[in-house]
Design a protein that fits this description.
Length: 484
């Protein structure tokens, strides 16, 4: 049989190109849906999406120090691009979210449900020291509809209605490498090694090897992303008791697009003894750090304000145009972000902790600050796998996860900081484990219960329940076929 043979490297590039276009099409169609119902998404760019997929979600959102081991199952951690360097199999992830939020004020309660496609990503190893990932994920989401009634002097009762929808999407392509991965191999082929061997200096060789192996634990990476999206905000002022006053409506559409870069570092080391006493199982410690510099992205705003009245049939009749702004271009300044993480793994246990900060006080639109505050987030999570043996009972191979998080958001309303916290748990169910064909799959389920805000001072409290389901597929791609 005659066929066309494509070199492994060219095939990888071709596949990445096809996958990118496929994901882009899906994201711009299926993902174009509201995924939040929070009145606080009215501010800034809306609710900023957490990083990481179903595994990290169930562990309190930890991701900065999360890294694959040398054996499957592998997962994609775009929250720290340095993690791509530890991939050994091609990995695909697909997930969906469900949100249920109960809004509560001092006088009313309301429950809203939302479901949305959450993420689509692909990651693959290029070399033993180099991995890459491509995907489409939400960056932020806007979705709210709230009203407020005030009695103003000389005017009377006024109903203010605020409504918004939309968000920003993120298409990313990332790479992670281990820059010192070949140090030990290069040392064995060096003249220095030959000289030390001939002089029988085994202690010196051992010390050099320890330093070089320690350096091999360093990974660095970067994601290059393109942000795009549109969100709409509408404000109405309705005068129900004023006989000669016209209602007003202001609608603003903001379009965002531009490039965004974030960077990551991880360092992993394994401890096999403490004070010259051997441990029963090695302890793996991973340190992580992430950073995204302050970035300007292109912004275009259209705004229309007019006065109107409502006729007997309920239709709006425009009285006069107050302001009409069209196609005004400028910049939006996204904040500096940095974070640090620590993960400790021993046997089937994995414990991880993150701390991150975003400098939202420098967030600007058309060079105007928006009154936001710097935000902070702390996350803690744990995972336990009872057994990794091939013949272990099924529920001994299930991944059991839990976590918690606390955040001081970028909002401070009526001199009250807006605080958010959540408690999460989840399971990872292995599916179709095949060591001969080297393909593995897992279904990840995560749940989170949490709260944001307060009912004091006329504010709104959110009690939310979030659920996510993700599908992780590992397979052996880009290998040269063998002749039977």
């Amino acid at each position: 049989m005659i066929g066309i043979k494509i070199a492994g490297k060219s095939r990888s590039i071709l596949l990445a190109f096809l996958v990118f276009n496929f994901l882009f099409l899906i994201r711009t169609t299926a993902f174009a849906q509201q995924s939040t119902s929070s009145p606080y998404s009215r501010y800034g760019i809306g609710d900023v999406a957490g990083k990481g997929y179903s595994q990290g979600f169930a562990m309190g959102g930890t991701n900065i120090a999360m890294q694959n081991d040398s054996t499957p199952l592998f997962f994609i951690n775009y929250g720290n691009p340095a993690s791509y360097s530890s991939l050994r199999l091609t990995t695909a992830e697909l997930g969906a979210n469900f949100n249920r939020v109960r809004l509560e004020s001092a006088s009313a309660k309301k429950t809203i449900n939302n479901a949305s496609l959450a993420f689509i990503s692909l990651a693959f190893p290029i070399k033993k020291w180099w991995g890459a990932s491509i995907g489409i994920i939400p960056y932020s989401s806007v979705g709210y509809k709230v009203s407020d009634n005030e009695v103003l002097p000389n005017i009377g009762s006024v109903n203010f209605l605020y409504q918004g929808s939309g968000g920003i999407n993120q298409v990313y392509f990332g790479n992670g490498i281990k820059p010192f991965n070949n140090l030990a191999r290069l040392f064995f082929g060096s003249n220095r090694y030959q000289r030390l061997t001939s002089e029988n200096k085994q202690a010196a060789i051992s010390n050099i090897m320890k330093r070089k192996k320690a350096a091999q634990g360093l990974s660095i990476g970067a994601n290059a992303s393109y942000l795009f999206g549109t969100f709409e905000n509408t404000r109405r002022s309705i005068f129900p008791a004023a006989a000669f006053a016209f209602n007003t409506r202001t609608g603003t559409t903001t379009q965002v697009n531009g490039f965004y870069f974030d960077y990551g570092m991880q360092y992993a080391l394994t401890i096999d003894s403490v004070r010259h006493r051997d441990l029963k199982k090695d302890v793996k410690i991973i340190f992580g750090a992430t950073m995204a510099a302050q970035t300007n992205v292109s912004t275009k705003i259209d705004s229309l304000s007019y006065s109107y009245f409502t006729n007997s049939l309920g239709y709006e009749i425009v009285k006069d145009t107050i302001e009409n702004i069209h196609d005004v271009k400028g910049n939006m300044t996204l904040p500096l972000t940095f974070g640090f993480g620590l993960a400790i793994k021993k046997g089937g246990w994995l414990v991880a902790a993150d701390y991150s900060v975003q400098n939202w006080s420098q967030y600007k639109v058309f060079n105007q600050t928006q009154g936001l505050k710097n935000s902070m987030r702390i996350s803690l999570g744990a995972q336990f796998i009872p057994s990794s043996k091939v013949n272990a009972h099924y529920f001994e191979r299930v991944n059991y996860r839990m976590g918690l998080r606390y955040a001081q958001t970028a909002l401070e309303l009526k001199n009250t900081p807006l605080v958010e916290y959540g408690l999460s748990a989840g399971l990872g169910f292995p599916v179709g484990r095949n060591f001969i064909l080297r393909n593995f799959s897992m279904v990840n389920i995560g749940l989170e219960f949490g709260q944001r805000g307060t009912t004091k001072l006329g504010l709104i409290k959110e009690n939310f329940f979030k659920a996510t389901i993700g599908f992780t597929i590992n397979d052996l791609w880009f290998q040269k076929p063998k002749i039977d």
